[in-house]
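User: My notes are a mess, but here's the protein and adenosine-5'-triphosphate's SMILES. Can you give me a structure?
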Amino acid sequence: MIEIKGLTKSFSGGQGQVDVLRGIDLNIASGERVAIVGTSGAGKTTFMHIAGALDHPTSGSVHIEGTDIFSLRGAALDRFRNQTVGFVFQFHQLLPEFSALENVMMPALIARKSPREAADRARELLCEVGLGPRLEHKPGQLSGGEQQRVAIARALVMSPRILLADEPTGNLDSRTTDEIYRLLHQLHQAHGLTMIIVTHSETLAGRLDRIVHMEDGLVRT
Ligand SMILES: Nc1ncnc2c1ncn2[C@@H]1O[C@H](COP(=O)(O)OP(=O)(O)OP(=O)(O)O)[C@@H](O)[C@H]1O
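Assistant: No problem, the inputs look usable. Here's the predicted complex:
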């Protein structure tokens, strides 16, 4: 269960203060798949970064399975995030110099898993996302859809319970979008993941369990 209460985020810059999130309340059940939709600038990415503890709110709280995540500090917060949340970004952010296998291993190596264990887990996940024959390919040698599959495998390498995806199909054509949806569905069935997915794709949003509309830093009710 994810419980978000009174979340606000303001940035201050040259042109004064910008209130990007203005008091978001949202509960998401374990295993639920939620689409976050809204116009550009509504605050979706900012919200996702805070929900996944990549950024701090100005005020408000996020409880994940009972843990008040912003009461954790430093290494404890990093550990909680690495073990609990996996991220998939629109522009997948794979490291171009490294193979698919090495990209997926990376979070496990950073978490000090042994290279053998990291490689075994990465291989298993790449096979699960249909990339068994592409383990040694570098991102530049893979299609957009394949790169996104690598990014999804990487997000899952630490066996998180929550998957946060920001426009996971944003730069893909409709057939590849459909394939990524089917993969996410398969992973949801297999791992019981809670999924929060920011998307502009009505097709993708419509297939999830619930659609949350964000508008001007608030959830539209
Ligand atoms: N670090 C920052 N400093 C100042 N303003 C910021 C910062 N990050 C985001 N913003 C502003 O917050 C607003 C919301 O941005 P955000 O990326 O969360 O929106 P979004 O709904 O994800 O948009 P899109 O669909 O275009 O990705 C924007 O007006 C943006 O300029």
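Strands lie at 2-13, 16-28, 33-37, 59-64, 67-68, 85-88, 162-166, 194-198, 210-215, 218-219.
User: Great, I'll file this with my notes.
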